[in-house]
Automatic annotation (TrEMBL):
Xref: InterPro entries: 3-OHbutyrate_DH, NAD(P)-bd_dom_sf, Sc_DH/Rdtase_CS, SDR, SDR_fam
Source organism per UniProt: Falsihalocynthiibacter arcticus
Similarity annotation: Belongs to the short-chain dehydrogenases/reductases (SDR) family.
NCBIfam families: PHB_DH (TIGR01963), PRK12429.1 (NF009093)
Source domain of life: Bacteria
Protein name (record): 3-hydroxybutyrate dehydrogenase
GO MF entries: 3-hydroxybutyrate dehydrogenase activity
GO biological process: monocarboxylic acid metabolic process
């Protein structure tokens, strides 16, 4: 399906980004993995994916909190038929106590990085005559929660950027859409469970059901595979008239 295409996925050495990379590689795409670290295990992830799916996989270190590094990532990738803007971080605090550096980092990594990579990828996609941009937003791109001001603002911004990108490319064979996951059990979420168990004096299952999935009516986590397969669908011809829109994978969260 995607052989001959190159997909650049930001923040893809774990969680959803790695799941999307796996699905795109399984569909035949060559892959550029990314995070801000440059460890042997990052490059080993790339080698393992390449062996598994017999596609080309490179790991390129770049810090998505830095505008120039975002832009250089696309230059170093060389080809970019599919761009997945996935890198993201979270910080939870009330607005009046929210650390200024955390606000700046979340806006930079979760929102501005997608602007910089998109700006660099569009000329490459135009030259190739085809492109797909997939922004990993969140249910928090469509609804809010208290104590997540920077994250909610950034993710609403990503949805706005998605619409504008969709309009600017509407007459071309380029689409831009946002996937809005609810809770997905990635390492970052898994790591929060022990803290929540202590804070609420609850067992693991009660924390998952009553705290984490309280707003997810299905009562189940979405999976990285489900996000990955949706990304593959967005790259297919069947999705060529879908642009500038959002796809929720949230067990009914945003229907409430
Ligand atoms: P994760 O922590 O496993 O993945 C985040 C990725 O971003 C990692 O690969 C990390 O290395 C990378 N990253 C962080 N800072 C970076 C930086 N400065 N430069 C480059 N890369 C950086 O978490 P995840 O759950 O897989 O999150 C991936 C995306 O999905 C995020 O944008 C997140 O907001 C979004 N999301 C996650 C959930 C969920 O429940 N897990 C729900 C909705 C949206």
């Amino acid at each position: 399906l995607l052989s001959g295409k190159t997909a650049v996925i930001t923040g893809s050495n774990s969680g959803i980004g790695l799941g999307v990379a796996d699905s795109l590689a399984a569909a035949g795409a060559d892959i550029v993995l990314n995070s801000f670290t440059d460890r042997p295990e990052d490059h080993e992830l790339a080698d393992a994916l390449a062996r598994r799916y017999k596609v080309n996989v490179r790991y390129i270190a770049a810090d998505m909190s830095k505008a120039q590094e975002c832009r250089d990532l696309i230059t170093k990738a060389g080809k970019c038929d599919i761009l997945v803007n996935n890198a993201g971080i979270q910080h939870v605090a009330s607005i009046d106590t929210f650390p200024m550096d955390k606000w700046d980092a979340i806006i930079a990594i979760n929102l501005s990085s997608a602007f910089h990579t998109t700006a660099m990828a569009l000329p490459i996609m135009r030259a190739a005559g085809w492109g797909r941009i997939i922004n990993i937003a969140s249910a928090h791109g469509l609804t809010a929660s208290p104590y997540k001001s920077a994250y909610v603002a950034a993710k609403h911004g990503v949805v706005g950027l998605t619409k504008t990108t969709g309009l600017e490319t509407a007459r071309e064979q380029i689409t831009c859409n946002a996937i809005c996951p609810g809770y997905v059990l990635t390492p970052i979420i898994e790591a929060q469970i022990p803290d929540q168990m202590a804070t609420h004096n609850m067992d693991r299952e009660t924390v998952i059901q009553d705290v984490m999935l309280a707003r997810q009516p299905s009562g189940e986590f979405a999976t990285t595979e489900q996000i990955g397969v949706t990304a593959v669908f967005l790259c297919s011809d069947a999705a060529s008239q879908m642009t500038g829109t959002t796809l929720s994978i949230d067990g009914g969260w945003t229907a409430l």
